[in-house]
Amino acid sequence: MNITKENLLETHARIKPFIHRTPVLSSQLINEIAGAEIFFKCENFQKMGAFKMRGATNAILQLSEVEKEFGVATHSSGNFAQAIALAAKTQGIKAYIVMPSNAPEIKKTAVKGYGGEIIECIPTLEARETSLNEVVNKTGAIFLHPYNDYQVIEGQASAAMELIEEYADLDAIFAPVGGGGLLSGTALAAFHFSPNTKVIGAEPMGADDAWQSIQKGEIVPQTNPKTIADGLLTSLGDKTFPIIQQHVEEIIRVEEKEIVAAMRIIWERMKIIAEASSAVALAAVLKNKKKYQGQKIGIILSGGNVELSKLPF
């Protein structure tokens, strides 16, 4: 499917009443550290605390009345689970969420708080998919994929669209990459609304399947990822990968200690809560300071759902 400029404009208009237009913040001190002007699109202030509310809302708003009666289902270790639960609640429909047993407690509590029904499974992709199929077969709920879905990608693109509306002359936008919903959406937003802005993906070394996939020219599945960035553990999908391949300049990998250092800078200097997955994008900029010297850089701070009892610093 070719996602057009019109698709993105229609999507943004559709979801606007149900999402926050999040602020864009900057820090003089972080600019000095980076040697560049950085503009943080703060999706940690989005409803349910992450950008995923955008894609979930777009997908749910396009269900037919009949589909809405059966509800929606997804599998997610956290942020998409919360997004679907809240977006479904807003529209008055049922949400079934398959979550791995080791998902952060804070995220499970939030899903329940939004009225989602949790089905726990062992923490493997295979178990998630099996459990999900059982739920769908039993309930008739519509499966919404956390990222490998064009309506979800279109929704995620709206974060970068808003950023570009406010800062039209960015040299680059950095976004973290897990399954690729945010990165592919960001790349499409830049392609259609700010073609001179490069889009860069940021990824943990311990979960670098997107980097490997770009090198190889085909999807390399994620195996045994090890990273503090718990939102970036999934593999690219057959819908996100081609968009990333076509429109993303490069993917920069960062070490765990670089992620923690970047996360700490955001907390200390900006006085805001950002999760480790969000900090990966700043870590990538700081790792490549020479290359981005004096440039105007956008960063999508993807979310702020942090288990406070398990801070890495």
Structure report:
One of its GO terms (molecular function) is L-serine ammonia-lyase activity. It comes from Labilibaculum filiforme. One of its GO terms (biological process) is D-serine biosynthetic process. Its cofactor is pyridoxal 5'-phosphate. Belongs to the serine/threonine dehydratase family. With 313 residues, this protein is of the alpha/beta class. The chain folds into 2 domains: 5-50 and 150-305, Rossmann fold (3-Layer(aba) Sandwich); 53-143, Rossmann fold, CATH 3.40.50.1100. The protein is 46% helix and 15% strand. It has 13 helices and 10 strands. It has helices at 5-15, 28-34, 52-61, 65-70, 79-90, 105-113, 125-139, 150-166, 181-193, 209-216, 240-247, 256-270, 276-287, and strands spanning 24-25, 37-42, 72-75, 95-100, 117-121, 142-143, 172-176, 198-204, 250-254, 296-301. The strands form 2 sheets. It has a 6-stranded mixed beta sheet, with helices on both faces. The protein has a 4-stranded parallel beta sheet with strand order 5-4-3-6, with helices on both faces. Strand 4, helix 6 (105-113) and strand 5 (117-121) form a beta-alpha-beta unit. Helix 8 (150-166) packs across helix 9. The termini are far apart.
